């Protein structure tokens, strides 16, 4: 999640001490347990105030996160998938968007971006343009980009993307995690590792 407040000296006016909750900040990815922020409450049946959510200030990046007490969920949530170094700028932008969508529980759009990236990688690595998603995954497989014993992964990813463009299929969390894991491994092998090696060679 972009750090929108980094350019300001932030103050949380009239904030109070609230019960602390440990979570990973969706902006700066630090593990935090803040206790400063605001309560969001509503009236209970007896007219008493019931706290429904807490707004926390991250002590590192100062951005606000909302913790919903009934659901025990923090928004923005934490990213899924590893950080990959050495990505070209356009791939980095889309990969970040894919992970941000995941953290905001937009699993369908997260997977759509992941599939777009997988197809882009295949074309960049020599596949023909205008093929089906399954063909691109086959190409990556037969061209040696999938590690040994990766057949189950290939079958799973092929199946997950095997929908026509006009079909609407809502994607779930678990499948999205698998697609991002697959994508991040490919990004690691294709961009990060070769770059690391060429840095060593120069020195
Ligand atoms: Zn933070």
Strand content: 15-25%
Q: N-to-C SSE series?
A: EEEEEEEHHHHH
Class from helix and strand fractions: alpha+beta
Number of helices: 5
- The global form is elongated
Helix share bin: 40-55%
The kinds of small molecule bound in this structure are: zinc ion
Distance between the termini: 35 Å
Average of the residue pLDDT scores? 89
Q: What is the radius of gyration computed over CA atoms, rounded to a whole number of angstroms?
A: 21 Å
Spatially, the strands of the biggest sheet line up as 1-4-5-6-7
Question: How many domain units?
Answer: 2
List low-pLDDT spans: none
**In this structure, how is the largest beta sheet organized?**
5 strands, antiparallel
Work out the number of β strands. Answer: 7
